[in-house]
Specification:
Elements lengths: L9 H24 L8 H14 L12 H9 L20 H12 L4 H31 L4 H13 L1 H7 L5 H20 L5 H15 L8 H17 L12 H16 L2 H12 L7 H7 L6 H8 L1 H17 L1 E2 L4 E2 L2 H27 L6 H27 L12 H16 L1 H25 L4 H15 L9 H28 L2
Antiparallel strand pairs: 1-2
Helix pairs in contact: 1-5, 1-6, 1-21, 2-4, 4-5, 5-6, 5-8, 6-18, 6-21, 8-9, 8-10, 8-17, 9-11, 10-11, 14-15, 16-18, 16-19, 16-20, 17-18, 18-21, 19-20
Amino acid sequence: MPFRLRTFKLSEKHFLTLIVLVYLSLGGLYAIFTPLWQTPDEPAHFNYVRVVAETLTLPVLNVGDYDQAYLEAIKARHFPPEMPVDAIRYEEHQPPLYYWLATPFYWLSAAGGVAMQVRVLRLLGVVLGMGVLILVWASARLLFPQAPWRARVAAAFVAVLPMHIAMMATVNNDPLAELFIALGMFRLLLHLRHPDAPPSSWALTGLVVGLGMLTKAQAYILLPLVAAVWGWQWLQAMWPRTFRGGATLPRRQVWKSGIAALVGALVLPLPWWWRNMSIYGRHDPLGLQNHELVVIGQPRTAAWIASAGWSSYLQRLFTFTFESFWGVFGWLGVFLDSRIYQFLLVLSLLVAVGLLWQARQWRRHSERGSTFQRLGLTLLGLQALSVMAAYIWYNISFVQHQGRYLFPALLPIAIGVSLGLEGVLDAEGSRWGAVTLAGATLLTLAWGLWQGDLPGWLLLFLLLAGVGLALRSRWSHLTSGVLALLLMMLLGIIALWALFGAVVPQLAL
């Protein structure tokens, strides 16, 4: 039976509605109260919208559109009114779909001035981010129809992740790109669940991919994932006896589906590629080579390593990526309290321990996972690997240790958080987790003594988490899902504090 939202219980819809309302409330607060221009690249994206809205043409990225010295000066002074942002235009190589979508909202809010236009466009991003949240929930619900708590926790994580809220509440093409990535992944999961989908369904999936590529280069990760799902179905059709649960589709239909997906994916971005090649050169269909020539002054990886060394580079890579995934705000200069990052490190450790426990249980009880679930989780793993590979590739040239670049993999991350917390908060898994955290506490203590600097708060959080897991049996009336949602509530409080305790006081003029 096809996957339909109306098959779910009304109470589950109410639960999703509550999560959405929490997200919209937090996102709306970030959109309204974050000081003007104080999100990464916001002036450059706004100027792209301005050009499209006022000239009805697409801009061309030229040398001079990126001025490193001026950008550093205006950021240091918190974008005062006497320093205009009009010359900050280095995002004009981006695909145009988001900016076309934003143009009517730019027109409608013009009477309120630039500040009003920025906030309206930020709220547009929040609404697009709501679509991402719902698709994460729907994908998790499709994968685990008998475990609704997994979908709820995954959606709740998306709703309260501080840095993701901040990036949705900005003038940026990230929200629309993430929406198409999430929609594309949902459709690929549907193809795995219903392999007999007609070629027209594959064509629709291809169109989603094409829309994503017309929004941001990050959406190109969908291409190999579509190829992987189609390739699996092709193998099943070619050798149905070799693969368990092989499809019974005619080979002709499989080929038609592949062609339909390919045509659907290429029909929209082809004119954009042709336009770029006519402007930037035939070897630069995405405009990225020209962009690299324009952004003179951006920190380069080779120069950084030559100056600071590999040890310093790798330490920054892991530390700053971790912190900026959870929340480093403004132009990546507003940090949370160090104790919050230590708490989030323990939370991440809990998720990792829980995932290891879940993997152990699945290996011991292979019947727990259906063929579709195994294929779906494999697809999510490929998505995460693709995003990580793109992140590493980008950082080979530029020093861009920004955790937000991992958000195109938010679906597998959110489901991973849900599964991990379920595993470590399970009555049996919690005992295993308590032992693991006890070992982590002893290692941290030994390392601190050896360094002569005990990380007191980290030790306290590890100790409290370990004791809490050890006492888990006393809370048998609370399911692991309820406990996980309590942790998500705490993360939501952190997101609220981040705005009014860090972003607003540190960035306001």
